[in-house]
Amino acid sequence: MSEFSRRSLVIGTPALVAAAGLPVGAFAQESADAYPSKDVKFVCAFPAGSGADVYVRYFAERMKPIMKRNIVVDNRVGAIGNIATTYTARSKPDGYTIFVHAPSSLAANMHLFKKPPVDAVKEIQVAATINIQPFMLTVGAKSPHKTMDELVKAVRAKGDKASFATTNPTSRVSSALFKRILDLKAVEVQYRTGADTLNDMNSGVIDYCMHDPVTAIANTNNGRLRILGVTTRERMKALPDVPSLHELGAKGLDVPGWWGAMVPAATPKPIVNKLNAMWRQVIDSEETRQFMAKFGADTWSASPEEAQKKLAEDVRAWGEYIKVAGIEPQG
Questions:
Q1: By C-alpha distance, which of 272, 255, 253, 256 is closest to 264?
Q2: Looking at domain 38-132+257-325, which of 3.30.450.40, 3.40.190.150, 3.10.410.10, 2.40.128.270 is its CATH number?
Q3: What is the pTM of this model?
Q4: pLDDT in tens, 203-245
Q5: Helices 82-89 and 103-112 meet at what angle, rounded to 10?
Q6: Are the C-beta atoms of residues 96 and 73 closer than 8 Å to each other?
Q7: What fold characterizes domain 136-248?
C-alpha cells in the first residue's frame, strides 16, 4: 500500500485512527478545531410559522455569524416530535445536524408511546440549554371567562360537554393534570399545532387549551387569546403579573418545559463542547433574554453534562406525570 493510501485510511474515521495507533482524542479535537467547515442544519419538529419555528429561526439567524456558515432550517413535522427526534438520532454524529427543540418533550414521548422510536437519554446529547418556560392556560378572546375560577365553574357545569385542546406532549400532560386536580369532566381534542386551535376556541367549540408560550403570547397580543395562568409552580420572572395555576387553586400543578440544542449521542465531545460555547454566546446575550421574555420564558445556560443529567431526570419525572395524569400510551 502506498504512503498516500495509508495516510488516507488513517484520517478516514476515529476507528481507523485508533487502529493505526493514534489517539482518538487528538483526532476528535482536530475535527472540533476545524468545525464547522460546511453549512449546518437546524431541525424543527413543527411547521413553518409555528411557535417552535419562531424559536428555531431566531437562533438560526443569531448563530450564523458565530458559526460563520449558512444555517438551513429543516421542518420535520409529525408524531408530536418523534419524526424530528428519530431523524436527529439517526443522523451522522458530526455536529452538522442540530435539533432545536424541548428535551422535556422528548422525555414525555418516552412514556406517551408504548414503543418510543428513540431512547432519548442514550441516543441524544443535549449540547446546550436555551430556556425554561411554562405552558399557559388560555381561552379564546371572546370567552366570557376572565379568571381560572370562572372557567372552572363553567366547565364543571358543562360536564363532559366541555372540551379542551392539546397540541404536544407538554400540552397533553399539563391539561390532564389540570383536569385531574380540579376533577373536571372535559374531553380532550388533539390538534396538530397551536394555530389550528384558534378558530375553534374563538367560536366556542373548544373551552380552553394549554398553549405553548409563543402561541399564547403572540395570540394574546393580536387579540385572539386570553391567558389565565401558567403551568409552573412559581410565576416566571419574564411574566411576573401572570399567576401560576398552582397559586390559583390547581394545587401541585408544576409542569415546566425547557428548550435545548441537541445532537446525536455519538457526536465527539470536543464538538459538543464547542457547540455549547457557541450557543452560550447567544443565550447569555441581553437580546436573547429580552426575546425570551416576550414569550414568557427565562433564559438558561448549562453545561452539556448538566443538560444531559436534566434530560435523564425529566424522563423519570414524566413517567410519573403521565401515570398521575392517567394518560394511556399510544401505539
A1: 272
A2: 3.40.190.150
A3: 0.81
A4: 999 999 999 998 999 999 999 999 999 999 999 999 999 999 9
A5: 110
A6: no
A7: D-Maltodextrin-Binding Protein; domain 2 (3.40.190)
User: What CA–CA distance (Å, rounded) separates 179 from 9?
Assistant: 60
Per the CB < 8 A criterion, the answer to whether 148 and 248 are in contact is yes
Answer yes or no: same fold for 38-132+257-325 and 136-248: yes
Question: In whole angstroms, what is the distance from residue 112 CA to residue 323 CA?
Answer: 10
Q: How far apart are CA 265 and CA 267, in angstroms?
A: 6
User: What would the grid cell of residue 252 be?
Assistant: 401541585
How far CA 311 is from CA of 35, 72, 172, 330, in Å, comes to 26, 26, 19, 22
Write the burial class of residue 318 (CB in 10 Å: 0-12 exposed, 13-18 middle, 19+ buried): buried
Cell of 323: 401515570
Cell numbers linked to 146: 376572565
Written in H, E and C, the secondary structure of 162-227 is: CEEEECCHHHHHHHHHHHHHCCCCCEEEECCCCHHHHHHHHHCCCCEEEECHHHHHHHHHCCCEEE
Domain range annotation of the chain: 38-132+257-325, 136-248
Give the count of beta carbons closer than 10 Å to the beta carbon of residue 276.
Answer: 21
Amino acid at 35: Y
Q: Please provide residue 278's backbone torsions phi and psi, each rounded to the nearest 5 degrees.
A: -65, -45
Contact between residue 162 and residue 242 where contact means Cβ atoms under 8 Å apart: no
Do residues 120 and 106 make contact, with C-beta atoms less than 8 angstroms apart?
A: yes
291, 213 Cβ separation under 8 angstroms = no
Pairing mode, strands 163-166 and 298-299: unpaired
Query: Which residues are registered as beta bridge partners of 74?
Result: 43
Give the three-state DSSP class for 59.
helix
Contact 184, 152 (CB under 8 A): yes
* pLDDT 10s digits, 284-304: 999 999 999 998 899 999 999
